[in-house]
UniProtKB/TrEMBL annotation:
Belongs to the homogentisate dioxygenase family. Residues 11-181 form the Homogentisate 1,2-dioxygenase N-terminal domain. Fe cation binds at H238, E244, H279. Its cofactor is Fe cation. Pathway: Amino-acid degradation; L-phenylalanine degradation; acetoacetate and fumarate from L-phenylalanine: step 4/6. Keywords: Dioxygenase, Iron, Metal-binding, Oxidoreductase. This is homogentisate 1,2-dioxygenase. The keyword Iron applies. The active site is at H194. Its EC number is 1.13.11.5.
Length: 342
């Protein structure tokens, strides 16, 4: 929608309570303009996992700058002020706001140390002081700034007479960061059967309630090799203890790519599968999997990769989203209401 900036993100689904530090919210954003000059934003509710679907975000934070492109993700910790501009034009995507704990790498156990997302591939900004040197002294770019904050899902604003981006140096482990999903080291079955999607987890926020569950897992299904012979390549029809939201990320940044032209790709196409609801491949994909030869080959999704947000929390889709989908005739349900395409 025209005229929207970073402060106009809308809630798509949610669970828990930000004031009680439980659960999460999933937002969508569609930005067509930079944030206002001398304006900053922060979430006081939780850490923000930013998943651009298309376009790039130039994020100026208190601790330094991040340029987040297609097929990259970023995490902005709770309370870190930042300003978002558009270096390549409009952008859209998803935000997973985590109220409970923090995002971290999953425990790898027998997988070992060099698999999935590696620590060395995450990028952390260096301090970027917003100001100038005058007579050997650092002087901030001081003027009246508006700071917009989200608290318990509501937006508040205040003004201050100096820039929030006046950090000349910092240390510690509470910082924003970004990660290139192309660096993800995919693992998979080398003999038979499709692995559980948890094998594709990039970041997780464990709940510490019991093994195999979490407040949220962020996983991707990227281009990869399948080397299973004489077996069924697709996941069996199944039920999960986790609620699953899946959607596409465009990884081809070429402007000529058909996915970047907005002609054949509907923004925000996503699937929600509730906990303990049956879901799996549709009939045509099942038939193709039965008939295909299973010699090793590269499996590609032609310009986009699929992400998953899996949570032990029951997700409630926002009323406006349900009304919008029903009005436009987009929402559909499969047998027994087990799956909704948003």
């Amino acid at each position: 929608m025209d005229g929207q900036d970073w402060t106009d993100a809308r809630v798509l689904a949610h669970s828990g309570d930000a004031s009680m530090k439980t659960g999460l919210k999933i937002y969508i954003f569609a930005i067509t303009k930079d944030m206002k000059n001398a304006q900053a934003f922060s979430s006081l509710d939780g850490d923000m996992l930013i998943i651009p679907q298309q376009g790039a975000l130039d994020i100026q934070t208190e601790l330094g700058n991040l340029l987040v492109r297609q097929n990259e993700i970023a995490v902005i910790p709770r309370g870190i002020r930042h300003r978002v501009t558009l270096p390549t034009g409009q952008a859209r995507g998803y935000i997973c706001e985590l109220f409970q704990g923090h995002f971290r790498l999953p425990e790898l156990g027998p997988i070992g140390t060099c698999s999935l997302a590696n620590v060395r591939d995450f990028q952390v900004p260096v301090a970027a002081f917003d100001g100038t040197l005058q007579d050997g002294r650092a002087c901030g770019n001081n003027r009246e700034w508006q700071v917009v904050s989200r608290l318990d899902g509501h937006l508040f604003s205040c003004t201050q007479n100096h820039t929030p981006f006046d950090v000349a140096a910092w240390n510690g482990t509470y910082y924003p960061y970004k990660y290139d999903l192309a660096r993800f080291c995919v693992l998979g079955s080398a003999l038979y059967d499709h692995p559980d999607p948890s094998l594709f987890t990039v970041l997780t926020a464990p709940s510490y309630r019991e093994p195999g569950t979490g407040v949220v897992d962020f996983a991707i299904i990227p281009p990869r090799w399948n080397v299973m012979e004489n077996t069924y390549w697709l996941p069996y029809y199944h039920r999960n203890t986790m609620t699953e939201v899946s959607g596409p990320i465009i990884y081809n940044q070429d402007e000529c790519c058909v996915w970047n032209k907005g002609l054949e790709f509907q923004p925000y196409a996503a699937t929600v599968a509730s906990a303990m609801a049956c879901h799996g491949a549709p009939e045509d994909a099942h038939k193709k999997a039965e008939e295909q030869t299973t010699a090793p080959k590269k499996v590609s999704t032609e310009g986009f990769t699929v992400f998953l947000l899996e949570t032990e929390c029951p997700l409630r889709v926002a009323d406006w989203a349900i009304q919008q989908f029903e009005t436009n005739g987009v929402a559909t349900a499969t047998v027994h209401g087990t799956k909704s395409n948003l």
